[in-house]
Amino acid sequence: CIGINMPRYYGWQSLVVKEKILPYDFLPFAQTVTKTKIYEVDTLPNRLSNDDCQQFIDRIKPQLEDSLIFEYNRNRSRGKAIQSDENIVESKPVNELAKSVAEQVNRIFLANLAADYPHLFEAQIDYEPRVEGFWNVHGFAATKEDEEMRKKKNVPKENLKNPVDRWIHYFGQPTIQVRHNLPLPSVPLDKWTLTTPESSNTDIPKTAFKEIGIPNYDYDPKIYHKLPYERRHGVSIPGLLKINNYILKKLVSEYRSAVH
User: Rounded to 10 degrees, what is the CA torsion of 76, 77, 80, 84?
Assistant: First the structure.
């Protein structure tokens, strides 16, 4: 972080993107700044049979019901009861209840799944972690302000409208973050069939998918999406303190030796 911010100790002009704030037609911008392709599929591969899924649901259903009742009564006893209304808007009591329910559901799922999948015992849970991302993206259309700035720097006229770079500063607010040293495998696209305009519905299997490539984004996000354009110090925080098992064991052993 220090190396990024040293040239601009007062911060970088950045497009600020925050979780839960999704302007209209935001997908092309999100794909452009993250270089992400999208695959639309009807169903995802399931390693569990329908019988196994039903048995798991039957096993956790009473636990989920008890946890929901417990969290609802606990919030009501604190004076944070939520009125039953079809048009419930996001508010602090609603968020508090949703956070408590999410933590309970995560606990129940891990406790029951770990009996059959022991590697889940090594999963690490972060509650309300701080997640920030800061990166530079090339290829945005130059605005009039960019052209005027280039004129002041004596940039040749033929280069005034060249694409410009933009710094992106993302702020995430997850309720729960689950980490493990065994990440989920990628979806096996080689077993699927790409949907094309020439293919008929009878020829497309259930595993067909449609690919959405990275679009050519030619708009100014400050105008088109009303994104804040502010000076920010570049910080990238994954929501956890990166520390490997070797360092952790060493710290624990040193602490024990110091205590004894």
Answer: 10
